[in-house]
Amino acid sequence: MALSTFAELKTSVAAWLKPNTTIPSAETTLIADYIRMAEAKFNRTLMHPLMEMEATLTVTSGSAPVPAELLNVITIQLTQAPYTIITPSQAPLLAATAGYAGSNSPREYKWLGETFKFDTPMSVSAAIRYRRTIPALSDGNTTNWLLTRFPDMYLFESVLNGDTRLLDDEQMTVINARNERAHEEFNDWARLSHMGILKQRPSGGVV
Hints:
The protein is of the alpha+beta class. It folds into 2 domains: 6-46 and 134-195, no CATH class; 52-132, no CATH class. The chain is built from 6 helices and 7 strands, in the order αααβββββββααα. The protein has helices at 6-17, 25-28, 31-45, 145-149, 151-160, 169-195; strands at residues 52-59, 63-65, 70-78, 85-88, 108-112, 115-118, 124-132. Helix 1 (6-17) crosses helix 5 (151-160), helix 3 crosses helix 5 (151-160) and helix 5 (151-160) packs across helix 6. It is elongated and about 70 Å long.
C-alpha cells in the first residue's frame, strides 16, 4: 500500500505490530503516540539541511523571543554594521541591565527558556540560522518531507515504539534490520546533501 500520509502510516504500523490480526480500538489509538515517540527520536538524532531554517531576530532592549520549534542555534549575526557574529556566552550577562549607558553592539547571548538574552540592552536586528523540529504528523498535517522521502524509517521506528510482544524473533530481526538500514540510508543522504559525498567503506567503496 502507499505510505505517504499520517493515516496510511498508522495503518501500516498496525499491520506490522499485529500481522493478520485486528488490533483493538483502544490499542489503535496508541499508534499516534508511537509515531510521536519516533518523531521525538528523529528530532534528537537527525541532522539534514531540510531541518535548517533562517529567521530574523528582533532584539528589543537586549532580549528576543526564541523561534518556535527551534532545536539548536547554528549562528546568530547582526544584520547591520558591524555585522558581528554573536556567540554563546559562558558567563552571566551582567551588562544587559537597565542602567547600561554604553553603545556597544551585542557580542554574546544566552538562551534562557523562551528568550535569548544579549550582553547589551540595545535594540537591534539579527539573523538566526537554526535547526528546527521535523513538522509533526497529525490529522491536520498529514505529511512532511521525512515521510515523503523515508517512509520506511518512519514506519519501523514507530513499530519499535509499540507493543512488540506478539512479534516473534524473526519478525523483530527483520524490523530492526530494516530500521537500521533506513537510518543508514538517511545518514548517507544527509552527507551527500551537506558535502556531496557518501561514506567510504574501508575498501574504497561507498556505503
